[in-house]
Amino acid sequence: MTSLFSTRWRVGLAALAVTLGLSGCGYNDFQRLDEEVKAGWSEVLNQYQRRADLIPNIVSTVKGEANFEQETLTKVVEARAKATSIQATPELVNNPEAFQKFQAAQGELSGALSRLLVVSEQYPNLKANQGFQDLRVQLEGTENRITVARNRYIKTVAEYNVKVRSLPTNLTAMVMGYQVKPSFTVQNEATISAPPTVSFDKPAAASK
Question: Is the CB of residue 118 less than 8 Å from the CB of residue 136?
Fold first, then answer.
């Protein structure tokens, strides 16, 4: 009986040691951060999908305005098609090349939408169209939510990647197969978010 008790005691101590060891080497942190990255990524996708769902209504409303720039509309439609054609699976966050393509496509869509909103300012009927203005407010709110979701994702991925690269948790990462995850970059971010300069001035006639 005593021998059985000792065996159980040793097994319990061994299990406790393993648990403490895993905790000390960052295993539990990896589990937590990995789940937070997944949750953050899901929120980013939700906001991008919200934006994509608004675009058809915006384009439909703008089409009703006579002489609206067809090229501007075409670019928005094409950019949306390109952005939504990329299958945004959870695995995308572990594929730097695919992640970069996704980010580039969303950036193109942001630029196309920005130009559309700038051009729409030149049309009094659109400015007076309550339906269009409501859609515009929804779009601007969605863009703000995208920014918030992206920032949270960037912060979580940064914390996760530090764990992957740092001693001694990098040893746990190698053993468990945790790798550095790609994140959104700030490259060209200012260019993407800034509205383009649109001039409607007619060029001066060339002197004869």
Answer: no
Task: Say if CB 44 and CB 153 are below 8 A apart.
Answer: yes
Residues 6+ apart with CB under 8 A from 194: 114
Q: How far apart are CA 122 and CA 115, in angstroms?
A: 12
Per-residue burial over 30-55, b if 16 or more Cβ lie within 10 Å, else e, is beebbebbeebbebbbebbebbbebb
Q: What is the pTM of this model?
A: 0.77
Residue listed under structure tokens 């959870």: 90
Is the pLDDT assigned to residue 185 strictly greater than 80? no
What is the distance between the alpha carbons of residues 137 and 143, in angstroms, rounded to a whole number? 10
Mean pLDDT of 96-118: 94
